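Section 5.1 Outputs to date
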Amino acid sequence: MAVHPIDYRYGSEEMRRIWDEENKLQKLLEVEAALARAHAKVGNIPEESARVISERANTKWVKLERVKEIEAEIHHDIMAVVKALSEVCGEHGKYVHLGATSNDIIDTANTLLIKESLEIVENDLREIRSILKNLAREHKYTVCIGRTHGQHAVPTTYGMKFAIWLDEIQRHLDRIEELKERVLVGQMSGAVGTMASFGDKGLEIQRLVMEDLGLKPARISNQIIQRDVYAELMAVLALIASTLDKIALEIRNLQRTEILEISEPFGKKQVGSSTMPHKRNPIRSEKVSGLARVLYSNVFPALLNNPLWHERDLTNSSVERVILPESFVLLEEMLKSMRKVLSGLEFFPENIKRNLHMTHNLIMAEPLMLKLTEKGMGRQKAHELVRGLAMKAFRENRDLIEVAKENEDVRKFLTEDDFESLKPENYIGMAPQIVDNVIAWIEEKERKEGI
């Protein structure tokens, strides 16, 4: 019976399959097989034994049920795998796990699982990147109100919003690429990392095993690959989650009834509330924000897993059984949900325009101040003058430009053409060019990736 929602509600079948018991066992067996092949290459065991071990180191021969049965007797998970594999290899089973310690197998198998998981995350990020690139290009001239402190500030564009997210998604792809150099490593170094159990062939055996598995060998380890590497991985996954949380939070705010500039898609038969038939709740975005909290919380135990007793204790093990699959499955759920939200994003142009003009041109205080400065008024004097005019316009619920036109000091500097130019749509600066620059940079990244 499934208990944790990652077993039945969150993530894709593809990601869950990576971390299920059967595949985890398969990866452990693959490492054992690679070790046997390495021993044969350096002359430690017969080639026939390596062939048989390799042939039978899979879940068709080594059944998960048998491994669990043995573990229930001996209370050691890796020795249960070793015994189960040895059983099906007959006389060749005596060479299984030769010279290795448990975490040579566990940590290297974990790396294989992490490698597969990161490929899914990268593919999801690239799809979101493509969606955001198109949105940024399409909306680089869609002028809207910018907000700071939750208050109307000055105009911006939706292209700017999307390009900011696009830029951040690319940084995550870059981080993953850099991360791989440190994370996608395995070890075959024995009980405390000295390779004493492999004699003078230790370095060669480790190199051969990792080459076989498509990994890099750790430069140095004790009984485990050092957990600063896992902590970095968890931090990067949490950073990706924070970007998705950021995007979701903005969409949720902009979908509020009193704002309603954009909205996540709402299906024809979708129900918003069990009691309020009119509701169109941003449930996908809210889910993303909610699941991000789990990803954030998993960073802390990953950090605590780095300082262990001496060459290693077992306190990291139980934690990693939880946080590795949980973080990858939940992050993939977030990525999948955000992909759906962004690809079906609904715009309400009339509300975007309404909100842009809601404050009766109070948002034009900055360009009014700058126009006065341009025409010869001192900057500080212009700031104080416009501040007073803005407060007056606010109190009287009047248009700022109309109030400014009545002021004698303003009229000494500005003409009717100057006043006419002070429109929100005219005050977006270099926004379109900034967006174009981001898109051009992204497309250069895509070319290098061969996309």
